[in-house]
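hiii so my PI (J.) wants the whole complex modelled not just the main chain, which honestly fair. so below is everything: two entries, each one labled with what it is. i double checked the lines twice but i was tired so who knows lol
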Amino acid sequence: MQRAAQEHWRPSCDLKAIQLRAEMLAVIRAFFYQRSVLEVETPLLCHATGTDPQLDFFSTAYHHVPGIKKSKNFFLQTSPEFAMKRLLAAGSGCIFQICKAFRNGESGRFHNPEFSILEWYRVGFTLPQLMDEVAELIVEILPGSCKVNDIQKISYVELFEQITGLNPLVFCQQSYSLYASNNSISDAITLCGKDHSMWLDFIFSYKIQPVLNDQSLYMVYGYPVIQSSLARINKDNSAIADRFEVFINGIEIGNGFFELADASEQEQRFDQENKSRAQRQLLQVDKDKLFLDALRSGLPNCSGIAIGLDRLLMIVANADTLNEVITFPFDRA
Amino acid sequence: MAKYSTNEFKAGLKIMLDADPCAIIENEFIKPGKGQAFNRVKIRNLKTGRVIERTFKSGESVDGADVVDIDMQYLYSDGDFWHFMVPDSFEQYQADKNAVADAIKWLKDQDICTMTLWNDSPLSVTPPNFVELAVTETDPGLKGDTSGGGGKPATMETGAVVRVPLFVQIGEMIKVDTRTGEYVSRVKE
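here's the output for the full assembly
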């Protein structure tokens, strides 16, 4: 790493990390082959993209004639989710994909704007069933040296209350602020203000994630409904969404949903997100019509998850930064 | 002065924070997959030397601080101020006690120090990594005792007290690492 860092034409990771990646990919493919989950490919360059105000995308121009600048905008995908759901709606059955995804403006120890995703969907799976499968896969991927001791499934609400004493479902600016000033994160008070969701992100990132660091595989489920993303609302408790996140060594590894299948609810969420984009003075994003059409024609009940493969490889390789497991990270791509 | 957005944050960048000039020591990008992005930044206040942690919403901007490091020659002290000169331009600066701070005990006439200027006024002084100083006071000790262990305190011409090996005598020149305050070697005349 030190030697390699000196010359920018060289990969920033060592050969060992490159081999570990190849082994990891082989394990993943064998795992899904055994379970008859079909490997698929979907486009990275698409007409449309997600509206999530927290995800910035890359867009690029397609020239109708080579060299002629009359063009149309295309987007590099922030995840293959919409295209894979179109396959599901078309009757593909269970599918998985290993691909690149792109997120603009995300660069750091745990972020590279271009990164590798493993995304899979299980038709007929409930969220707990998918959580079990995620654990089985991760146990198979992690070598003996970094085995997880324990697999802990814990509800977001319970975890949040346990660590902070705060109720994540009901926003109380006063008690959140008091907690922040008593726990050396008083910056949150001015940054987050009345933004409940931002408060949750701040507290979770600073106070909860670091605690999930005891060699266990954590699956935190039942996110507050304001952070439901593309997950269904829980049918017994409308305050929470059927969404879970995977953490190892305090690092966020993946995000899974019991997938929202209702086209009109999905469209409302797009509209809502565009509204929130407007408030933040971000560009409006056209709703992905093909995706909505697919939902209207019928998405089978399914659960799906995206896993960040570079981060998972960091854990496999016992690395501290993504640069140690990516051949050519952003600054030398 | 320029403004800097969080995406330009990196170690060494000088910014204004709470009306004080500061230097970024470490910048970490934090972002839940589906959530708000933050920059968690370790910052040294260049006036007080204190290190604090601060979080910014990614995309926020802060004012840059007009802070530059310039090599200057130390000239003399008049008791209230310590006078330095830029060798190329002969331009002189006077630093007060706050700016000189701990560097005082290593300052020797004509040594080249690093002066940190904020809006063209001295903010802090960093002595050279190694200085050569005369020993003005130390216990004479036993002649011929060259045993490795122990050592003894010795006072330098600048007032600094350094732990030296037993064989070092008054009047000798020694080389000291100012970053650790440790004896390095004797200097042959």
